[in-house]
Amino acid sequence: MAETKYIFVTGGVASSLGKGIISSSIGKLLQARGYSVTIQKFDPYINIDPGTLNPYEHGECYVTVDGHEADLDLGHYERFLGIQTTKANNITTGRIYKSVIDKERRGDYLGKTIQIIPHITDEIKRNVKLLGNKYKYDFVITEIGGTVGDIESLPYLESIRQLKWELGTNALCVHLTYVPYLAAAGELKTKPTQHSVKELQSVGIQPDILVLRTEHDLSQGLRKKVALFCNVDESAVIQSKDMPTIYEVPLRMQEQHLDATILRKMGLPVGETPALGPWRDFLDRRHRATETVRIGLVGKYDLQDAYKSILEALSQAATYNDRKADIHFINSEKLTDQNVEEQLSSMDGVIICPGFGQRGIEGKFVALKYCRTHNVPTFGICLGMQCMAIEFARNVLGYADANSREMDEKTPHNVIDIMEEQKSVTHMGGTMRLGAYECVLTPGSKVMEAYQTEHIKERHRHRYEFNNDFKAEFEKAGMNCVGLNPESDLVEIIEIPTLKWFIGTQFHPEYSSTVLKPHPLFLSFIRAAIGQ
ω into residue 118 within 30 of 0, thus cis? Predict the structure, then answer.
């Protein structure tokens, strides 16, 4: 296949319909047919990236191997396709405008008046085609954030219109809408979909395929009506019904020949339908699992999406251990010495979540003291690992005032501190250790047993580090530093070997757990929790 083909995924009627899951499913099905695929997300907000956004605004901030802070949908792309995304896979309006303004300041436009059309749209088009031009993918799927009709997504839609015109059969638009059910009338309503398509047509885009999100099965008659009113082939109206797990979506899409329809519309041979064997095996194990493993998630955000990758990594690891993950969120702001027993005693394992800032941190210390003294399998991630070190310093080493410089500038026992070379940087994000870094594991440690290798590479997103001045004291008292960065000698992993499973990682292992390759640390943690 010589020329890269472009698939655009847009959404209408409401946000959060699952464009990311549909994009990932299309990618998975095309990949299963032997095509090379990548997926990118274009977000219409003006932030340069979601790194400075509150998780309540935008869910988890996902980190790519090259250290880019990205939209959480990139996590879905990686989990479904087993690919690695980069900075180029997530573009925001902020980045588009910044790039155009930088060029204008340099004089690249030779005195022209800079306008949304053509300058902003040209920059969007350049970014759409960047990965295809550079790596010669067979398919580049581009998901456009937001909802059709939003002012902010207009430049993106105009760019798609131009690209569809320029690329002919090498471009295709999949539009995702919602079909609501009115209980009082006992009817499913297609009017919102018709309006949404009309909105898209008004900017010059005719969708090629419609995916209808619904809670109820859509009749053949209803699909026929949608096809007729929206100028779409009947075979190109697909239903996407709520599923018990997002991982079933590719199979439901395949049953309705979504991938075959895409190939036909793009002038490619359809061929055999892939069996998706390993994927089906994963789902079978998931359905067959009857016993549960109860995991407590101790964090400060009451929003599931804030810990998206952790939830997915846990659920994948549970499946491969033939269990269902029964995950309980425990708000660390409300955790005290008085109620910790009641909150944690029924848990098989506990995760101390990542985060930034002071809020809810004391509750994490309370949880850690309980888990450490009751030998509950415990996994501290990023700030969770730093809390492990602080709690240990306070309650085992006897430094009652031990803390991180992030929380207490003046603590004399700064077991977590900012590195010297980072102290001069002022703007937010500038001091972060972001992306994949090497780590060497200590032979004989529990982490080495889990990974089955001495050298690993994992993704980071943090600013403060374990203070090596305290390392000898920690090890003498029984908390070992079992993972080190070979270049900087920074501590990446701590564990208490005498406990069942008490491990903290400075990095985020959840970012690299996928459906067909669950993360070894999560597998090991769940195994320990089952033994509880």
Answer: yes
This prediction has a pTM of: 0.93
Residues 470-513 have pLDDT tens digits of: 999 999 999 999 999 999 899 999 999 999 999 999 999 999 99
Exposed, middle or buried: residue 103 (CB in 10 Å: 0-12, 13-18, 19+)? middle
- Residue 93 CA to residue 121 CA, distance in Å, equals 11
Write down the residue that tokens 């003006």 correspond to.
46
* 8 A C-beta contact, residue 200 and residue 149: no
Helix (H, G, I), strand (E, B) or coil at 138: coil
Q: What angle do CA 244, 298, 401 make, to 5 degrees?
A: 170
Q: At what angle do helices 308-320 and 73-81 cross, to 10 degrees?
A: 20
- Tokens 């060029």 belong to 103
Q: Which residues are catalytic?
A: 382, 508, 510
Whole-angstrom distance between the N-terminal and C-terminal Cα of the chain? 53
- Give me 182's structure tokens: 């009115």
Helix axes of 121-135 and 93-106: crossing angle, nearest 10 degrees? 100
d(CA 300, CA 393): 22
